[in-house]
Amino acid sequence: MEINGLNPELNTMLNQGQLSGSKIAHLIQLRTFVDQLAVRQYVPANEMAELKKRFGTAPNVSSWGDYFQTELASTWFEADDTEFKKILDTVRFDLIAAAQIFLDKDDRFCAAVEANGLAAYGKDAADWDASDEESAHLYILLQYYTDMQLDSERLTQSDLDWYHQHLNSITDVRAVG
Fold first, then answer.
1. Which residues pair with 150 in a beta bridge?
2. What is the DSSP letter of 106?
3. Could you tell me the CA-to-CA distances from 127 to 13, 53, 115, 121, 133 in Å, in that order?
4. I want to staple 98 with a disulfide (CB 3.0 to 4.6 A). Which of 26, 69, 141, 162 is the partner?
5. What is the model's pLDDT at position 176?
């Protein structure tokens, strides 16, 4: 069985009943969102053509939406539907944050984020303080931004409203804690 919008790499999981209807719907939404936001393909068109020429076939995972959909489905399929949605929402939130944070930032800012992130990753994670955690997270967001060429102009008003609603809920939780 195949479902439109679900990467064929997930067909085995689908046929084995490892993906609920809710998970499938959220995976399709995530793939669409990621492919809307990412300018660069996971596997560039010229590499896809070369792979097809060389091997007679091309990989099913070619876009960043494909990558996140297959990676998250195969890693988190055992999570219940509510937890699974939270995981996918975290990815969506981080991608929007990356597109917003690094928009119009100069090379010096990005270099500082990279240096601080690499310094944090040079330590044992058990020894990280809050600053190291933030540096590591910003570094991941920078990698998303640059590797995927995230374009904040592709965000819809609905995406931004969703992001700000979640940002406010995070801020509210921190204020209470």
1. 38
2. -
3. 38, 48, 18, 10, 10
4. 141
5. 47
Structure token digits, residue 90: 């975290």
CB atoms within 10 A of CB 31: 23
pLDDT per position as a tens digit, 114-144: 999 999 999 999 999 999 999 999 999 999 9
Does 174 score more than 90 pLDDT?
Answer: no
What whole-number distance in Å separates Cα of residue 70 and Cα of residue 88?
Answer: 12
- Give the burial class of 77: count Cβ atoms within 10 A of its Cβ; 0-12 exposed, 13-18 middle, 19 or more buried: middle
At residue 76, does pLDDT exceed 50?
yes
The answer to whether the CB of 48 falls within 8 A of the CB of 58 is yes
